[in-house]
Amino acid sequence: MKLYVTYTSPYARLARIVVAEKGLENRVEIVEAKTRTPNSPYYEINPSGRVPYLVDDAGIGTEDSQLICAYLDGLDGEPRLRHALHESDWAYRRLEANARSMCEGVCVWVRQKNLPESERAPTVLAHEMARTQRMADFFEARVSDSLMHRPLGMAQLILAVSVETARKRGLGDLTDGRPQLAVWMRPISDRPAMRATALP
Fold it and tell me: Which of 21, 78, 88, 182 is the Cys-Cys partner for 175 at CB 3.0 to 4.6 Å?
């Protein structure tokens, strides 16, 4: 099967992390997609042009990082990143949704910053910067929660990817002045799957 990604997308990175965490490198071919390019051949594969995009062995395509990560996690019949405990635990799922909100804010900010200066919307940049800071404060208070110290799951991965993306793409180090978040990030950032998929 083929997983279409860009190496700057945090959502595509999440799918690549699951491939690495689950040891699926021999089953899943990572293919770099050319997005935001007129007439890209990738649009023949995925008309929306979004990444990640997974084409399974039967040739069926799946879009959306949540679906793709869940599918990849369950390929061996032993899901551990989206295991039943997480799926039935509304408190954990709320934290996962909070982490996704933070990731979304980071992505919107980055897309705005990548526009020519004359096309940027200062109000959007300011809004997303403020949202990211609020979410970082939120997680500074929550990372000591036992839910965030359970065996690795998607909430933890999404939060870690969001924090690393913010630092790499110009929003600054969200762990500055947030000692609990800084301590929590260290072991996750050191995981081989996180290192192998680090943003350029």
Answer: 182
Q: What is the mean pLDDT of the chain?
A: 94
What domain range includes position 26? Answer: 2-73
Query: Residue 147 — pLDDT band, cuts 50, 70, 90?
Result: confident
Quick one: 9 and 61 in the same domain?
yes
Place of tokens 């021999």: 26
Among 73, 98, 129, the domain-final residue is 73
Q: Provide the number of structural domains found in the chain.
A: 2
95: closest CA among 130, 146, 19? 146
Q: Is the pLDDT of residue 115 over 70?
A: yes
Q: What is the pLDDT of residue 67?
A: 95
Q: Is residue 79 part of a domain?
A: no
Asked whether the beta carbons of 128 and 109 are under 8 A apart, the reply is: yes
Sorted by sequence, the CB contacts under 8 Å of residue 63 that are 6+ apart come out as 46, 48, 50, 52, 53
Neighbours of 57 (CB within 10 A): 8
Mark whether 180 and 124 lie in a shared domain: yes
In a domain, 132, yes or no: yes
107-125 b/e with 16+ CB inside 10 Å = b? bbbbebeeeeeeeeeeeee
**Domain co-membership, 69 together with 110:** no
pTM as predicted: 0.94
